[in-house]
Amino acid sequence: MKGSRTKGTTTIEVGAHGVALITIINPPVNSLSSDVLSSLKDSYEQALRRDDVKAIVITGAKGKFSGGADISAFEKVQEGKVNEPAPDFKLSEVLGDTLEAAKKPSVAAIDGLALGGGLEVAMACHARISTPTARLGLPELQLGLIPGFGGILIKMSRKIYG
């Protein structure tokens, strides 16, 4: 990622036992901006290509998994500063095609917040583990909205259609 337009990223570290740790970094709540989603997809694909990686763990920096979508992107759309908040690829590619369909096992290590799209990222992993104080939820349901990142629909369609 280059320049000041970059907002958020991920890092990847591979331990001696073959576990790749991918960390979402976008303070203060590790929101899922276009840059974060793109970086998450790239880091995940890098881990899948590496022969020394046997499993993948996704977590968030500073005690927060992810607070969900980057709301500031939606504000910019309303103000007419950008045409759309979505990245150049479909979110279902990140969640379903990349994470859930991967041949290597993945675990979401949840601490702090996992809300909205953040929870959908966690659900796309093969397994989830959380601290006792983690807060998980889909707050958009209280507004009568269907979760927008595609994770819910991916899970449902895979159960229905295999």
TrEMBL record:
Keywords recorded for this protein, A-Z: Isomerase, Lyase, Multifunctional enzyme
GO molecular-function terms, A-Z: (3S)-3-hydroxyacyl-CoA dehydrogenase (NAD+) activity; isomerase activity; lyase activity
GO process annotations (BP): fatty acid beta-oxidation
Coiled-coil regions, chain positions: none
Alphabetized Pfam families for the sequence: ECH_1
GO cellular component: peroxisome
Cross-referenced PANTHER family: 3-HYDROXYACYL-COA DEHYROGENASE, PEROXISOMAL FATTY ACID BETA-OXIDATION MULTIFUNCTIONAL PROTEIN MFP2
Family indicated by similarity: Belongs to the enoyl-CoA hydratase/isomerase family.
Protein name: 3-HYDROXYACYL-COA DEHYROGENASE
Taxonomic source organism: Salix purpurea (Purple osier willow)
